[in-house]
């Protein structure tokens, strides 16, 4: 699965998601791109977008997107806070469908 991480997530998180082709937005050359434009660029290039920006789904219509969105819920974007979410991220990646929003953890 082709996965892209929002630039607000640490690049080290990419190495923590095994079995998938994971890039960060900056690695794709998309630093500083606003959400609407970023979502357009992701279309056709990635299967899943992972972010910690909970407002993304309120500010943009993701239902019609040809990729899934995984929104992480953590106290901060520090890798130490995100590592415990890895098992649930992997589960979300295996079940998520285009146009679907998954929240991790799923409360």
SSE layout and pairing:
Elements (H helix, E strand, L loop, with lengths): L1 E4 L6 H4 L5 E4 L10 H8 L5 E4 L4 H4 L8 E5 L6 H4 L3 H10 L5 E4 L3
Parallel strand pairs: 1-2, 1-3, 3-4, 4-5
N-to-C terminal Cα separation, in Å? 25 Å
Low-confidence stretches: none
User: Could you state the order of secondary-structure elements as H and E?
Assistant: EHEHEHEHHE
Radius of gyration: 12 Å
Percentage beta strand: 15-25%
Rounded mean pLDDT score? 91
Q: How many domain regions?
A: 1
Bin the helical content: 25-40%
List the total number of helices: 5
Shape: globular
Q: Could you give a short account of the major beta sheet? A: 5 strands, parallel
> By helix and strand content, what is the structural category?
alpha/beta
**What is the strand tally?**
5
Strand numbers in spatial order across the main sheet: 2-1-3-4-5
Quaternary status: single chain
């Amino acid at each position: 699965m082709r996965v892209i991480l929002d630039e607000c997530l640490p690049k080290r998180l990419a190495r923590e998601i095994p079995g998938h082709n994971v890039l960060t937005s900056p690695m794709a050359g998309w630093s500083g791109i606003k959400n609407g434009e970023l979502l357009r660029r992701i279309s056709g290039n990635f299967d899943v977008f992972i972010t910690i920006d909970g407002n993304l789904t309120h500010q943009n219509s993701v239902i019609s997107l040809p990729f899934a969105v995984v929104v992480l819920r953590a106290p901060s974007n520090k890798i130490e806070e995100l590592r415990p979410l890895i098992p649930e991220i992997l589960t979300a990646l295996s079940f998520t469908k285009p146009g679907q929003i998954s929240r991790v953890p799923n409360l």
